[in-house]
Amino acid sequence: MPDTLDPSDVEQLVRSRPGWSLSDDGRSVSAELTFSSFADAWGFMSEIAIEADKLDHHPEWSNVYNRVAITLTTHDASGLTVRDVALAKRIASALARRGYGEE
Amino acid sequence: MPDTLDPSDVEQLVRSRPGWSLSDDGRSVSAELTFSSFADAWGFMSEIAIEADKLDHHPEWSNVYNRVAITLTTHDASGLTVRDVALAKRIASALARRGYGEE
Amino acid sequence: MPDTLDPSDVEQLVRSRPGWSLSDDGRSVSAELTFSSFADAWGFMSEIAIEADKLDHHPEWSNVYNRVAITLTTHDASGLTVRDVALAKRIASALARRGYGEE
Amino acid sequence: MPDTLDPSDVEQLVRSRPGWSLSDDGRSVSAELTFSSFADAWGFMSEIAIEADKLDHHPEWSNVYNRVAITLTTHDASGLTVRDVALAKRIASALARRGYGEE
After folding, report:
1. Alpha helix locations (H) across A1-103?
2. Looking at the domain assignment, is residue B76 inside a domain?
3. Which of B81, C31, C67, C103 could form a disulfide with B2 if both were Cys (CB 3.0 to 4.6 A apart)?
4. How many C-beta atoms surround the C-beta of residue A5 within 10 A?
5. Residue whose C-alpha is closest to residue B11's, from B88, B63, B65, B98
6. Is B47 an interface residue toward D (CB < 8 Å)?
7. Per-residue pLDDT at C103
8. How many whole angstroms separate alpha carbon B4 and alpha carbon B79?
9. Considering Cα of A73, then A56, then A45, then A94, what sign does the dihedral take?
10. Which of C90, D38, A66, A61 is nearest to B56 (CA)?
């Protein structure tokens, strides 16, 4: 099981696309995304579903129409780890490719 | 916009597969499903995603690994309508085809 | 059943993103797409799958790793119709959003 | 790179669900599947897409409406290998769970 992240790595994660919010207990980050349509949102989720299962690290996520909320945490470590960073990078890449999340 | 369901129709919906729980305010039903794997859960969600968009009626749903939680409601009617019954039927069919939800 | 397209509409379809090739018999158009990864290709296909079923007009398509080949035709009309134009527009939009197919 | 399969292992693969056809050159197997709807077919493909990318071994497959054609081969070995057996097992499991392919 990987160690939890150092504060500087957490800060870097929070600052990365799409702009993650750190939970009060510091053990997870969350983001809310809005897409142009349900089909657009579902294409994004389908891409990340494949990446997540390949990483063997799955998001906690919900969807209503064109909106997707994602929470990342590593349950076995009771906090954020390199696994969350890896999945966050895939999410950032999928959003960037679609032109979303530009600052 | 369709009317909200009669109590007898709500009761029938609640009793249908996969066993829906009526919310306290009577305006929505929810179910929690467990699948054999993330891929199995995702296959189910991908099938329902297509049916939902075709019905133009989308679930509120969340996923963590092999678990899927679904809430059905018709926001524009502030309650349950025939649209929720239609989507519930697609969900029941997809579960039955996979052998899930048998009582 | 819609009529087959006028030659000028076929020409417009062929010129649209992603650059369709008209078959020798003029009854279908095809395109071959390459994505950055299998997950990227699958996200695209998942988005189009939803749009296609909603239009009730499905592509003939194949996939190997990061490559997707698509053929559009309207079988019932033995040729290209407004249905193919509608699906082609969804495909163009999904590719444009990802920055693919720019000329 | 894994060795190609022994003839007895190829025979076992061909006999497994869903009933694979060996190509004339013995380097690949193919199957044609029919589902109850496009959404049903897409749910199956979405499940296998996740399994395939996790195995890092992808099918050659095509889809038209409710039909899916799949070819398995290991290009780097110019023939059938344990990778194809692994993916075939996932396909058999996904079909069995849906009650398809029973003999």
Report:
1. 7-15, 38-55, 82-97
2. yes
3. B81
4. 20
5. B88
6. yes
7. 41
8. 6
9. positive
10. A66
Q: Is residue A14 part of a domain?
A: yes
Containing structural domain, residue D55 = 7-97
Nearest to A38 among B58, B60, B64 (CB): B58
Tell whether A2 is within 8 A of chain C (Cβ): no
Cβ-Cβ contacts under 8 Å, C56 against chain D: none
Number of domains in chain A: 1
Neighbours of D86 (CB within 10 A): 15
Q: Is A63 on the interface with C (CB under 8 A)?
A: no
pLDDT in tens, C38-84: 999 999 999 999 999 999 999 999 999 999 999 999 999 999 999 99
Output b/e per residue, C9-25; b: 16+ Cβ within 10 A: ebeebeebbbebeeeee
Nearest CA in chain A to B58: A65
For D12-22, write each residue's pLDDT tens digit. 999 999 999 99
Place of tokens 């895939």: A90
Q: Is residue B23 part of a domain?
A: yes
Residue B70 is part of a domain; what is its CATH number?
3.30.1360.20
Residue B1 is assigned to a structural domain of this protein: no
- The pLDDT of residue D100 is above 90: no
pLDDT beyond 70 at C101: no
Average pLDDT, chain C: 95
Distance CA C32, CA B13 (A): 45
